[in-house]
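Summary of Year 1 activities. Much of the first year was spent building the evaluation harness for sequence design. The harness presents a backbone, in tokenized form, and records the residue chosen at every position. We chose the following record to illustrate the format because it has been used consistently in internal testing since the harness was completed.
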């Protein structure tokens, strides 16, 4: 029966921690939630658990411990997955933590070369497939670029006596959504009605940004009409006027 020496223990542990740290460097550079220390600690923990089973001398114990590590790391990965509106963030980070644990298990089992190959594979996935994924995302059927900046206009009609208050609410709602108006016009249509028109430049999901503004203002009692349209769609205003 092979006895785990102190040198073997330190070599495997150093390999596991080093491979986890290499994976963490890329995550830290990308400013992700789980960075250098987190991935190194996950790899170190997985390595130590399997090394313990190796030190005990039970031939079947390392396999059982590795299966427990696989299931246990799921709870840690679940902590970095967050819901962001209709989408989910943190899936790549959780998967990376899972891979760091797998690299630690390989290192602890004595397959140092395989642990290094696994580390290089994880890094290649992040560094090579990331730009490839962006190229796929930037080729939608409509041919539009999701990173393009577009101009949109928010139209609002309110009671004349509430104009100043509504204008402040509109600017506050735009600022709350991270939008800065490039133009703001106010016009008094009748004795009791005023209209406001705010133009903004938006990069990314236009509908999500502006619908958030509309939802914040729609419940204000002094507002009679509220809608928005893209500047590239001149016919939209005419359609809304006829509605």
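For this record, the design step produced the sequence shown next.
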């Amino acid at each position: 029966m092979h006895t785990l020496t102190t040198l073997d223990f330190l070599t495997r542990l150093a390999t596991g921690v080093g491979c986890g740290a290499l994976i963490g460097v890329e995550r830290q550079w990308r400013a992700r939630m789980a960075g250098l220390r987190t991935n190194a600690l996950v790899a170190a923990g997985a390595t130590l658990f399997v090394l313990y089973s190796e030190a005990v001398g039970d031939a079947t114990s390392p396999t059982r411990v590795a299966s427990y590590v696989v299931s246990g790391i799921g709870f840690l990965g679940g902590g970095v997955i967050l819901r962001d509106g209709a989408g989910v963030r943190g899936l790549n980070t959780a998967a990376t933590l899972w891979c760091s644990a797998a690299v630690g298990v390989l290192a602890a089992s004595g397959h140092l070369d395989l642990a290094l190959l696994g580390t290089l594979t994880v890094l290649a996935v992040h560094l090579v497939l990331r730009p490839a994924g962006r190229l796929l995302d930037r080729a939608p059927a409509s041919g539009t670029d999701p990173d393009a900046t577009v101009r949109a206009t928010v139209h609002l009609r309110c009671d004349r006596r509430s104009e100043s208050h509504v204008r402040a609410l509109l600017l506050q709602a735009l600022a709350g959504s991270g939008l800065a108006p490039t133009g703001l016009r106010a016009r008094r249509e009748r004795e009791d009605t005023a209209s406001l028109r705010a133009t903004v430049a938006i990069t990314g999901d236009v509908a999500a940004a502006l619908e958030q503004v509309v939802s914040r203002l729609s419940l204000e009692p002094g507002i009679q009409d509220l809608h928005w349209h893209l500047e590239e769609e001149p016919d939209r205003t005419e359609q809304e006027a006829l509605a």
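The two ends are 84 Å apart (CA to CA). Quantitative recovery figures across the full test set are reported in Table 2.
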